[in-house]
From TrEMBL:
Full protein name: Tripartite tricarboxylate transporter substrate binding protein
Pfam families to which the protein is assigned, alphabetical: TctC (PF03401)
Family membership noted in the UniProt record: Belongs to the UPF0065 (bug) family.
PANTHER family: BLR1237 PROTEIN (PTHR42928:SF5), TRICARBOXYLATE-BINDING PROTEIN (PTHR42928)
Length: 332
């Protein structure tokens, strides 16, 4: 079962119906640090991607808020490389109890793509909270002959391997959203990977591909300018664009994929630290600079605590291994 919000919206994206989980955390931090005042020193927030991107922005907002409220420095450190694996490994290898990780769904995907990623997200990280989630949109050029998703689906089924789609690269979440459609919808789509989201969007606009699976930040300006149309939303609910149907409305087996961002602690994050962080971050849930900045990139602020994040990870880590294997994506 692919990742997605249940239709009654009571469980998180990434939680299959047959594997409902309510665990509070994926791992337990070292009890030797339990009695220490935290934070007792500067805290790093590692971002495993380049500065200025959609993963970096919330991390810097969070760092500023925590530094102001807790009276200790919170410093963002960008450690990009290997699809996020370099930065994730840096957070996992830290044993100082003062290292956080702000990452994307890559933390659940990398173990499916790499034989030895150097970390086990199920045991090496302490969930703190989801910070934001964003839909993935299936888009076409405005003059595309596909006027709706049903027409797109019918063509793909009638002519296997003929309908093409672009993505920002092999193994990215947007690519895997299409692979879930391929598996659950019994369609054979032609994948044309590009080096990043911008070239992928450009390929749609140039007519190099029939369609693209892209994030809102790349396509909303083109949709609003009348250069692109969204055929479907890969989430389970009609988020962001209420008039755009979900894939699951036509393919019931498709349970939704979203881009998401989350805050973790290293394995030595002291007990109680996650709860402290949530108390300080709670005011950002509504009417804050974080909600404003996330809305600008088509994302919804979450900050719903460790339980939904733990459940999401327990569901998605094995799920992506299944999807990657079914898609025949070679592991590095």
């Amino acid at each position: 079962m692919p990742p997605g919000l249940d239709r009654d919206a009571r469980r998180p994206i990434g939680l299959p119906r047959r594997a409902l989980l309510t665990g509070a955390a994926l791992t337990v931090a070292s009890p030797s640090l339990a009695q220490d005042a935290w934070p007792g020193r500067p805290t790093r927030i590692i971002v495993p991607f380049a500065p200025g991107g959609t993963t970096d922005i919330p991390a810097r907002i969070i760092a500023e808020v925590l530094q102001r409220k807790l009276g200790k420095p919170f410093v963002v450190e960008n450690r990009s490389g290997a699809g996020g694996a370099v930065g994730i490994r840096a957070a996992v290898q830290s044993t100082d109890g003062h290292t956080l990780l702000h990452t994307t769904s890559a933390v659940a995907v990398v173990p499916a793509l790499q034989r030895d990623p150097g970390f086990d997200p199920m045991t090496d990280l302490v969930p703190v909270t989801m910070t934001a989630a964003s839909p993935i949109l299936l888009v076409v050029r405005e003059d595309s002959p596909f006027r709706d998703f049903l027409a797109y689906l019918a063509k793909a089924r009638a002519e296997p391997g003929k309908v093409s789609f672009s993505s920002s690269g092999i193994g990215t979440t947007v690519h895997l959203a299409a692979e879930v459609l391929r598996a659950r919808g019994r369609v054979d789509l032609l994948h044309i990977p590009y080096r990043g989201s911008a070239p992928s969007a450009t390929a749609v606009l140039a007519g190099e591909v029939d369609s693209g699976f892209l994030s809102p930040i790349e396509v909303l300006p083109h949709i609003r300018a009348g250069r692109m149309r969204a055929l479907a939303n890969c989430a389970l609910t009609r988020t962001l664009l209420p008039d755009v149907p979900t894939i699951a409305e036509s393919v019931p087996e498709y349970d939704g994929v979203q881009l998401w961002f989350a805050l973790f602690g290293g394995r030595d994050l002291p007990p109680g630290a996650a709860a402290m962080l949530m108390r300080e971050l709670a005011p950002l849930r509504q009417g804050s600079v974080l909600t404003e900045r996330m809305a600008e990139v088509g994302a919804e602020t979450m900050l719903d605590g460790p339980d939904p994040l733990a459940a999401r990870m327990r569901a998605e880590v094995p799920l992506w291994k299944t999807i990657v294997e079914a898609a025949g994506i070679p592991r590095e």
